[in-house]
Design brief:
With 172 residues, the chain is α+β, with helices and mostly antiparallel strands. It has helices at 17-28, 37-48, 53-63, 67-76, 96-100, 103-114, 156-167; strands at residues 88-93, 120-121, 127-132, 144-146, 149-151.
């Protein structure tokens, strides 16, 4: 179960040889295993595509931590996905600066175009959509994060064009 294949809730998981080697390297850099939790979760998310409860239990076992520690970190940080994600993860900032410049209209248009609501993934698994509180790009409001890319100074038309480019494989 590797490279984005998603485990079912009762399925066991294990890192690939390469991911396990990376994990061992990470752990070797910290005086206490628990300090390696965030980088280990990054490896796990890359390896499995998201951090299911099964993956959380696996990470807790690897690091010899209580499962509650892992669950607490995964639930606190929005960068860790707790559900399967689409190929393109769109995050629409709805903080005040973005909201004043039209992010609510952008979010509504994206939901209509994709046929999903915030927190959902399209049936073809191409897009996941989330509302986020702040992407710290107020000077370029409104902003959408698509994967690792920030796209600033958007309006509804530019956002829908972005989705069309992503859908056809022509990145942002």
């Amino acid at each position: 179960m590797h490279n984005g294949e998603q485990p079912t809730p009762h399925e066991s998981v294990a890192f690939s040889e390469a991911a396990l080697a990376e994990f061992n390297d990470i752990v070797s850099r910290y005086p206490e295993r628990r300090a390696a939790l965030l980088p280990t979760l990054w490896v796990a998310q890359r390896e499995f595509g998201w951090i299911s409860t099964t993956v959380q239990a696996y990470v807790a076992e690897l690091l010899k931590l209580p499962i509650a520690w892992v669950e607490g970190v995964v639930s606190f940080y929005t960068m860790f996905y707790r559900r399967p994600m689409g190929t393109h993860h769109l995050q629409v900032c709805t903080n005040l600066s973005c909201q004043l410049r039209g992010s609510d209209e952008i979010l509504d248009a994206v939901e209509r175009k994709l046929g999903i609501r915030c927190g959902e993934t399209t049936k073809d698994n191409k897009f996941s959509l989330d509302r986020v509180e702040c992407l710290a790009a107020c000077g370029g409001a409104p902003v959408v994060q698509a994967g690792d890319d920030y796209i600033e100074n958007l309006d509804v038309t530019k956002t829908l064009e972005l989705i069309d480019r992503l859908a056809t494989g022509k990145e942002s």
